[in-house]
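Task 17 of the worksheet. Students: predict the tertiary structure of the chain below and write it out as structure tokens. Keep your answer in the requested format; marks are given for formatting as well as content.
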Amino acid sequence: MWKLLKYLAILFVILVLVMLFNTFRLSSKQMADISPAPALAIGDSVVGHLASAIRFRTVSNADVTQIDSAQFEKFIAFLAKTYPLVHAQLQLERVNQYALLYSWKGKNTGLKPALLMGHYDVVPVIQGTERLWKHKPFAAEIAEGFLYGRGTLDDKVTVIGILEAVEHLLQKGYQPERSFYLAFGHDEEVSGHNGGKKIAELLAARKVELEFVMDEGGSIQVDAISDIPKPIAFVGVAEKGYTTLTLTAVGDGGHSSMPPPQTSIGELATAIDRLQKHPFPARLEGAVGYLQDYLAPEMPFGTKMAMANRWLLKSTIISMLAQSNPGNASVRTTIAPTILEAGVKDNVLPIEAIAKVNFRILPGDSVAGVIAHVKKAIDNERISVESNPKFDTNPSPVSDTATLGFRLIHRTIKRCFPGVLVAPYLVLGATDSRFFSQVSPNVYRFMPVRMNDEDLKRPHGTNERISTADFKNVVRFYVELIQGS
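Model answer:
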């Protein structure tokens, strides 16, 4: 018995030593000795240009016949008038009518080009919520240092920020070392299939190979993690896939005075309940692993030790992350019933009950795997399960951080925002950048704007806004990024 205890004690000491060794060998992945970028003479005109852009109601719609095409045409004409050098010196192609692709030839044609992208369509303001806005959502009013309006964060800020930077550089007579493409979609908010996807397919058909792609996505979060007091710039290296499955239960119908033991609604409710009680397995590899690799060295000792020994404490870390909705979504494919349809009258049994369930798919899973999981979890052949292949998207590949593109973004963040930590992460939503893995393995997602927890609710929500100082920094960031390429 004593020998057994002795051996266990020895094993425990060895385990502790291994954990300590793993912890102490962690070194910071933050670039050091990066000099701050010089001040850039950016006037208030750039804010005025963003304000003008916000006033165009470029609201996208899955039914293209329902969009206000005049607003899209006026926005494109506004760009041509506001950025004359861009339109004189870069080649512009209109792809599928409203998507925009600019080509900027660099000095060294031996270098692979890079692509900066965003989208200029916006989501509508939910009817009846206009009164909740401090300033009208399409008036683009400036108050207390903020520009209010739909698109100030998602995502005219990116489109106008890039164009302002390029126009500024052209005014200085600048020509980039490598060539650049600027790609601006017009339907990202309703799938991107007619805009961003068409641009990506066009470049692929021309056999263009890009050094890197950068789209919207992460931001600089000033209060992201309680254990880390510094702001963190989250750079998306992957994004989740997307599918919405339609679950349908069919019953006999009839009069509600003589119901069967389980109606079509009851059967569908049981199926949804079973599905939510069978979540997808959680994983820590890929983009989530990258995030922990970059942030672990910056954490207090206890948390750092846990992150340095994920091989041992994986289940504990997953349990901690799963306590919050964003944390849980970062480690597993999520299940979200969003629409229920059944019945037309309170005394009539519905024949058909329909539910739409949205899934955001973790890299490593797939649309096909989601369908298989749902059918197995429901375990009811009377419930049909159908997807819509037109809008299904598998997760993006995970882009490496040991690339020129990521290092350039990392360095530019450090130059423009001294004191900010940089961390790769998994984008939980969807962007147009997911279509561009066919022309580059190095696809990144970052928007150089500081945001707190309240600001994160503003895109697609109420009182979307950006500080005028932050927008000037957006322009400065893209100037630095292009010059550093």
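Marker's comment: The chain has a mean pLDDT of 96. The radius of gyration is 25 Å.
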